Amino acid sequence: MPPKVSVILPTYNAATTLQAAIQSCLDQSFSDFELIIIDDGSTDETIQILTIFSKSDSRIKIFSNTHNGIVAALNFGILQAKGEFIARMDADDVMYPERLEKQIEFLNNNKEIDLVSCLVEHGGHATMQEGYATHVHWINSITSTEDINVNRFVESPIAHPSVVFRKQITENFGVYQNGDFPEDYELWLRWLDAGIKMGKVKRQLLYWNDLASRLSRLDDRYSSDAFNKIKTNYLIKYLKEKIKGRKIWLCGAGRGTRKKSDLLLASNYSFGGYLDVDPKKTGKVFNGLLVFEAEDMPEKELAYVVSYVGTRGARDEIRTMLKRKKFEEGTDFIMAS
User: Fold this and answer.
1) How confident is the model at residue 310 (pLDDT cuts 50, 70, 90)?
2) What's the per-residue H, E or C state across the chain?
3) In a domain, 26, yes or no
4) In terms of domains, do 214 and 271 share one?
5) Confidence label for 131 from pLDDT (cuts 50, 70 and 90)
6) Whether residue 201 is found in the same domain as residue 301
7) Residue 230 lies in a domain
8) Global model pTM greater than 0.90
9) Are residues 185 and 279 located together in one domain of the fold?
10) Among 170, 187, 270, which residue's Cα sits nearest to residue 234?
11) Among 183, 207, 299, 327, whose Cα sits 20 to 30 Å from the Cα of 158?
12) Domains in the chain: how many in total?
């Protein structure tokens, strides 16, 4: 009988954290899985560690490839997987013992959901790594299928190593892609665009380690510009089904918010203007568009609002204001930062 779950764990020069990551997989309360570990050409003690573990548990499957990067390793792992479900894991993180049990239980009880994540514990210093800690706090606040759907253009609403998904969706909607973008965020956007529903177990089930050597800290594919570019590509597609002849109004006329909207402005859509809460900006013209006070926005029958206001407190204020004016999130406005 094939295993129920295939855990895919790529690793590259992660000898200092790999043992804890593997052991946390083997200590799962749910035992019907195979652990597929792809060594991406490591030059440290990774191979020795993998050899020892592979002799201790027959569920461990070791593959050694030349150094081709995480996308190639992940797709190779999916190709080898025999399970109905794919669980992601990274070599520097730690699973809680009930992670697989709770996530498989969720998918079995919610047949309409194809991918499930979970709450994560930030594995770093809350003050010295405040930015990432704040990001984790935000991710953990986005829990329902609808919240994930409408917040997809703010940031990636789920932590990559926290997901379990049905293998079938990789066959229907594709696997990871290589490019100048974060491979996980692109995949979530592509699957959400295709109508895939995602959910979360509302429990902390993963220790998400925030090391200085994280790929997301070192590689340009995970820069803010790379995130903005890929999110805008999918936002442009998303808006095609939403605006229904309305003009797009951009919320946020500050320098940073204007920069984030540049790629959207280059599309073929029609724009009404900027909306901003700062009265000092009212009447100014940027990119050929006039700035209006946010409260003076047109009725929703004439306007679809894309908000680039990034500060979380301000974002919530904008959302509250729009809902007070009977704008429905997703249908009449979307948060994009």
Assistant:
1) confident
2) CCCCEEEEEEECCCHHHHHHHHHHHHCCCCCCEEEEEEEECCCCCHHHHHHHHHHHCCCEEEEEECCCCHHHHHHHHHHHCCCCEEEECCCCCEECCCHHHHHHHHHHHCCCCCEEEEEEEEECCCCCCHHHHHHHHHHHHCCCHHHHHHCCCCCCCCCHHHCEEECHHHHHHCCCCCCCCCHHHHHHHHHHHCCCCEEEEEEEEEEEECCCCCHHHHCHHHCHHHHHHHHHHHHHHHHHCCCCCCEEEEECCCHHHHHHHHHHHCCCCCEEEEEECCHHHCCCEECCEEEEEHHHCCCCCCEEEEECCCCHHHHHHHHHHHHHCCCCECCCEEECC
3) yes
4) no
5) low
6) no
7) no
8) yes
9) no
10) 187
11) 327
12) 2
203 and 58 in a common domain: yes
- Distance of alpha carbon 117 from alpha carbon 184, whole angstroms: 13
* CATH assignment at residue 76: 3.90.550.10
CA dist., res. 260 & res. 110, Å (int): 36
Within this chain, do residues 266 and 220 fall inside the same structural domain, yes or no?
no
When pLDDT is cut at 50, 70 and 90, the band that residue 215 belongs to is: low
Q: What is the pLDDT of residues 80-113, one digit of tens each?
A: 999 999 999 999 999 999 999 999 999 999 999 9
